[in-house]
Amino acid sequence: MSAIGVGEIVLDCERTGTGPPLLLIMGMSGSALHWGEPFLEALRRDFEVIVYDHRGVGASSRLDGPLTIPQLADDAAGLLDALAIDAAHVLGISMGGMVAQELALARPQRVRTLTLGCTYCGGPGSSLSSPEVAARILAAMSSGDRERAIRTSWEINVSAAFAADDAAYASFLAIAHRRAVAVPVILAQMRAIAAHDTSARLPQLQLPTLVVHGTEDQLLPVENGRLLTSLIPAARLEILDGVGHLFFWERPQRSAELVRAHAAVPA
């Protein structure tokens, strides 16, 4: 990872692989490590993959004050500027998908293709986690028991079948210990997500857009993917049956294939 100056802040960034640039925008409570090596390795064969940590995460600048999704979209655009990239394929997941929406709406010329994974647009018809899931997350975060918080996050982010994979959980646990995200930062991200609403503006998007969502997503139910697809002209929806929020952990090769085909990169 390298520290890249973006305006008045620094973002920790890594560029690997060969091919057209692909900017990956991570979700709430995640770091660049949370993309998972199997998914990244599959992408590096066809793209120059750019991952980074949001402000407040890892070695990026500390979070100073409240956070908004448009602010994070400005960070993403500033990172492209700093890397001298005129336009990139963009994949955003969860909160990162909200950031990607704002980036594409404000600066469509910077986005070659847009992939929105396990995310939502806000507004009528959209839905966040159920009260039961939200309560479970908050209870784990406030328990003071870090292992409980990590395990709860894992079980909510993946399908029940994948949650039972001990090797996969060991990888997730190692990442959480290697690069922890502070609770105040996560809470600031949650507040930013609650204020997010692009629903009335999405029909303006004229970019090639792929929406990917798992049917067992507990954080942002699959209905959000269907709503996004209905609002964005010519958007295509890919539903992954039996898959949870972190679809790229459960189906890394298939997820990479979808991104590759959407970007029209030859197999």
Structure overview:
- The protein is of the alpha/beta class and 267 residues long.
- The protein has a single domain (2-262), classed as Rossmann fold (3-Layer(aba) Sandwich).
- It contains eleven helices and eight strands.
- Strand 7 (209-214), helix 9 and strand 8 form a beta-alpha-beta unit.
- The two termini are 28 Å apart.
Write the layout of secondary structure elements.
Elements: E1 2-6, E2 9-16, E3 21-25, H1 37-44, E4 48-52, H2 69-82, E5 88-93, H3 95-106, E6 111-117, H4 131-142, H5 146-157, H6 160-163, H7 166-178, H8 183-194, E7 209-214, H9 223-231, E8 236-240, H10 247-250, H11 252-262
Helix pairs in contact: 1-11, 2-3, 4-5
Index terms:
Rossmann fold, eight-stranded mixed beta sheet, 11 helices, alpha/beta, 267 residues
N-C termini distance: 28 Å
Q: Fill in the CATH topology.
A: Rossmann fold
Average predicted confidence as pLDDT: 95
SS-derived structural category: alpha/beta
**How much of the sequence is in beta strands?**
15-25%
Low-confidence stretches: none
State the shape: globular
Strand order of the largest sheet: 1-2-4-3-5-6-7-8
Largest sheet: 8 strands, mixed
Domain tally: 1
Provide a brief overview of the structure.
With 267 residues, the protein is α/β, with parallel strands linked by helices. Helices cover 42% and strands 18% of the residues. It is built from eleven helices and eight strands.
